[in-house]
Amino acid sequence: MRSIVIDDHFAAWRTASLRALAERVAPEAIEWRIEQPAGLQQGQTLFDYGKLQEGVVATPAVAVHVSKELAALMHDCALHCEPQRWAFLYKVLWRWQQGDRAVASPADADGAQLYRMAKSVRRAKHDMIAYVRFRQQAQTASPPEYIAWYEPDHDVLAWAAEHFSQRMGRSSWMIATPRGAAFWDGQQLHLERRHVLPGECRVDTADEAEALWLAYYRSTFNPARLNEAALEQHMPVRFWKGLPEGRLIPAMISEAKSGARRVAQASEVGALAGKSIAVEAALAQPARESPSSLDTCRRCDLWRDATQAVGSAGPRDARIMLIGEQPGDLEDLSGQPFVGPAGQLLDIAIRHAGLSRERLYLTNAVKHFKWELRGKRRLHKTPAQREVEACSYWLERELHTVRPAVIVTLGATALNALLHKKASLRDYVDAPFELNGGWGVATYHPSFALRQPNEAARDKVLGEISNALAQARELAESGLAGIAATSGTPNKTSKKERQ
């Protein structure tokens, strides 16, 4: 076993490696050392290629021709923090010299390690350029003018110092790391290898440029678009301690989670009282596409969680149309309206009113099931006004096609969808209203009966629904009802207005 002592840099290793190759010393027969050993054990031979002693005739170096890609990989690996990197690089060089070109391939075990180490070093180079922050000393302080503290993952200080020396002009600066420091006086770069503590580059004076940078950074932070995963990916948490803005980030994230997302970048927006702007409801709606079929409708987001769109049932020449709120769980699975528990109660009310379901046109104001998960059950959730407005496209088409003489609305949502305004159901129950040449009859949705606390209350609600349907039958059979129009403003009055 031979010990080769070198200075801890690529040039010294390269010189020693070429001479070891000339002597055909195998990688496993060399112990690479950085510091001068105190003494040699018996049988050891020392090759000190850091500083050759006078009178020692060195073995002539052998010429080794490596590819440009391999040379770049080896230069980067030489900056890796791996203590055994010099022995590993000599093993790579030895295999190459022996004609084993697979050592430069990522498919080879040594080649894969070579690529991993080089990739890690290149990442460290990028990080140092991105996350070094200089702080300006007081005008009366002695040079350097700017100082920075940084803790790189690998020995990339010299490389980064060359980068900053080309971009900082004549301003003097110092970058300190745990393993050394780099100095630039405006003309010449000096590197010093020694153990440096973070306190040696501390600046206690105020930095106007840093204060301006912090104000700018905070003003560009948009809490409404915060993505913590992306933030930590592009600016890893381990670098925050060395960044002036690092101490702002946790507070800004906390503020975003505590409600700042609602007012985005301007906190003053949340304090504004605001004012109402008169605008027609139809003009306030977003522009939506006109789908050719109900299955392709994407006018609101309810289709994302629904099994399918639920259309209508009944003849196109029906004199009476029943409009519900939206399909339920069973309707969503079957694709047919009013087939669940509420539909079964509706069938009872229809029979009591002397009507036949086969002669009625059944539909809903909203065509997709809106629900929320409770345990393993999908429970009904009332659709929002914007969803009702989006689905009015289909309801208007149905009204235009069927042109019923009497329209029965089941529940407040259906009534609002028909009237195109917010209306109170109790103002319209038990009193038919004119509707552009036809009649409208408002009553409760059958699901309201299902929610009653006892059987008596449920029968009462079911009776009121039956009475409303009987009123609709009488109006349709009396000949007083004309054909309901589908456009323009309905001529309607509530029970309160009639009183």
Automatic annotation (TrEMBL):
Gene3D superfamilies: Uracil-DNA glycosylase-like domain. SMART domains: UDG, UreE_C. The keyword Methyltransferase does not apply. InterPro entries: DNA_repair_put, DUF4130, UDG_Type-4/5, Ura-DNA_glyco_family4, Uracil-DNA_glycosylase-like, Uracil-DNA_glycosylase-like_sf. Residues 310-462 form the Uracil-DNA glycosylase-like domain. Keywords: 4Fe-4S, DNA damage, DNA repair, Hydrolase, Iron, Iron-sulfur, Metal-binding. The keyword Metal-binding applies. It holds the Pfam family UDG. Belongs to the uracil-DNA glycosylase (UDG) superfamily. Type 4 (UDGa) family. This is Type-4 uracil-DNA glycosylase. It comes from Paraburkholderia metrosideri. The lineage of its organism: Bacteria, Pseudomonadati, Pseudomonadota, Betaproteobacteria, Burkholderiales.
